[in-house]
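Saturday, quiet lab. Running sequence design on the structure tokens for the scaffold JK sent over.
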């Protein structure tokens, strides 16, 4: 569960040929970006309940190509208690924009 003093984790997967990922999480009080080879990141929980936008794509720096792009809306479960607690990881596939939560349309 999320509260003001805790974090949640998102993870992702993408093309087999990807050498890295560029993922942004934003919304409410949250604004974090990751670019690199890892397939997960820890994000500070929003200060108030609500959803965050997750956008990301897989890329291959050797081929200078981008393989896939996904955007989704994720609402971390909120816990109003001040005690730190763990939040289950949220995972999505960059090759498949559908997500456990409702995805938003990409332009």
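Result came back. Writing it out in full:
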């Amino acid at each position: 569960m999320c509260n003001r003093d805790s974090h949640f984790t998102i993870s992702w997967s993408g093309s087999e040929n990807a050498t890295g990922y560029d993922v942004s999480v934003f919304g409410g009080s949250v604004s974090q970006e990751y670019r690199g080879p890892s397939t997960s990141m820890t994000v500070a929980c929003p200060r108030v309940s609500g959803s965050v936008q997750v956008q990301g794509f897989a890329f291959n720096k050797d081929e200078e190509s981008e393989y896939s792009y996904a955007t989704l809306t994720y609402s971390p479960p909120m816990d109003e208690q001040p005690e730190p607690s763990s939040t289950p990881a949220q995972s999505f596939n960059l090759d498949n924009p559908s997500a456990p939560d409702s995805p938003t349309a990409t332009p």
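Notes for JK: Confidence is low (pLDDT under 50) at residues 99-107. Strands lie at 7-13, 20-27, 30-36, 40-44, 52-60, 65-74, 90-93. Ask whether to fix the surface positions before the next round.
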